[in-house]
Amino acid sequence: MDSVEEQPSVKVEKTASNLKEKPDSYIKGMILSTAVLILFTCANNSSIPLFTQYIHSRYEDMYSNGTHSSSTNDQSPCHGNASVEDNDVEVRVQQSTSSEILKLSLCFQLPPVFVNMVVGSYSDHIGRKMLFLLPMLGCTCKYIGFLVVVKFNLNLNFLLIGTLLEGFSGSIFTFILANMAYAADVTKTHATRTFAIVITDCSVSVAMALGQIMTGFLIQKLDYFYPSVIHTTLILLAIAIVIFGITETVKEKEVKELSPVVHLKKVFGFYVNKSRDNKRFIFIVCVIVFALLSIGLSGKTTIEILYQLGRPFCWNPVKIGYYGAYSTVFMTVSGIVAIKLGSKCVRVEVIAVIGMFLLVASLILEGLARTDAMLYSVPFVASINSVAFPVTRSVLSRMVEAHEQGAIFSSMATIDTLSAAIGSTGFASLYRATAGTMRGMAFHVIGAVIFIAAILKMLVIVKLPRQPSYEQILSPPEDEKDPNLNQNHYGTFAKGENNTSC
After folding, report:
1. What's the CA gap between 322 and 123, in Å, rounded?
2. For residues 93 and 283, what is the distance between their CA atoms, to the nearest angstrom?
3. What is the largest CA-CA distance in the chain?
């Protein structure tokens, strides 16, 4: 990707009076926001393996009549002889754990659907810091609730309280919205904006890998209480950086219109507004692709650890952490390499489609896996699938004006939240229903969802040449003097990207 040179002069965004002057350099802002992103994502995403394994351990203890303590030893039904009784116990543990995860998923994924409908649009007026702080405070509440349950061995339903508070804070979806909107604010050109969005997505992947491998070791060595203390500390550090380090990119002023209806129109007007007729097809299809990807990947995340805990794998926390780190890092690096090298030959949308088809193949393999080797080959097959999300986000971001960035990312966050709720609940229920018969079936259904997304993405690529007005997107004033930006094509991802020959 292109290196980004700092501009000596300060420029004012003419299309958005509520945005502050562009900073002399966006490097400082991106470094601080990336640090916050890594700290929070590392802590927040660690709750998935932490909660799943703790709940699984509690149900093992319950169904094994107390012979398995709620910790990390290997005396579980999964490690016993393959008797009918052991198999029945293991299936009951899997089903009960998936039911509990389903309830938690509903608590932290349904409330953000309503929160994210308007919060991004409001942030275009009252600032981005709010978007950073709300989900971090909510996640802190979730971990405090988890600490209390673990410390006093309370009923698992008490986990719902902290999780609900996180949900009403907007959860991880609002935090991603904050990072995307902030990246759009501090970048000066479309090219650097896309680069910043990709870096943001890659930072999420790196943080997830760190969190997964760290959580595996911490659970193995310290049980479940102290890892949650460490993750809470990371979140508090991220809050301090936001409050004292990050500069607000939007002028603090009163919102002109407080009615949520007005902001809902701003958020979803991109897909229904007649004035955008020439772009509506691209808007709608890109959002459908985005939604299908979110449904599939959230479903995969929900059931994957549970799948690894059961037969025939019976993985411990360290193996789960290793696998999570390996798969995340490998697919992220593969995606960056594919974008850097492949964009010199083909459009990035083509690379995204290839990544989706590879993801479908990996999901089929994962559902059929019976050995550790087969499971470890899944990320290798999936390889470059990580480019699909940032490509879609970048396309939608470049289609709107600077003062609409909060609204467009709010619409994506809302759709992402709703889709994640559908994916998590739907595939958790499917996994529960098939746990005793065809446990890998859920992965095959997820593969079908991703396959549909890939077909729709191909339709976008075919139709784009027929959308002349889409290619004539108005750019901010600072883009007009950018020699590295091809302004006659919407898909500029990096220098030389539209060159169709290697």
Report:
1. 38
2. 43
3. 74
Listed in sequence order, the residues at least 6 apart from 134 whose beta carbon sits closer than 8 Å to its beta carbon are 119, 169, 170, 174
Q: What is the pLDDT of residue 268?
A: 75
pTM summary value: 0.78
The structural domains of the chain, with segments of one domain joined by +, span 27-251+259-471
- Structure-token match 């490690």, residue found: 79
Q: In Å, how far are 187, 188, 492 from 2, measured between CA atoms?
A: 14, 14, 11
pLDDT at 188: 63
Q: How far is CA 448 from the centre of its chain?
A: 20
The residue behind tokens 């939007």 is 250
Give per-residue pLDDT as tens, 261-313: 665 777 777 777 766 555 778 888 888 999 999 999 999 999 999 999 988 89
Distance CA 416, CA 22 (A): 29
Could you give the CA distance from residue 43 to residue 262 in angstroms, rounded to a whole number?
35
What radius of gyration do the chain's Cα atoms show?
Answer: 23
State which amino acid sits at residue 108: F
Topology at the third CATH level for domain 27-251+259-471: Growth Hormone; Chain: A; (1.20.1250)
Distance, CA of 451 to CA of 290 (rounded, Å): 13
179 vs 131: CA distance, rounded Å: 9
Quick one: average pLDDT of 397-425? 81
User: Does the N-terminal peptide bond of residue 312 adopt cis geometry, omega within 30 degrees of 0?
Assistant: yes
Per-residue pLDDT of 232-259, as tens digits, reads 999 999 999 999 988 887 765 555 555 6
149, two tokens: 């349950």
What are the φ and ψ backbone dihedral angles of 153, each rounded to 5 degrees?
A: 50, 45
Three-class SS state of 250: strand
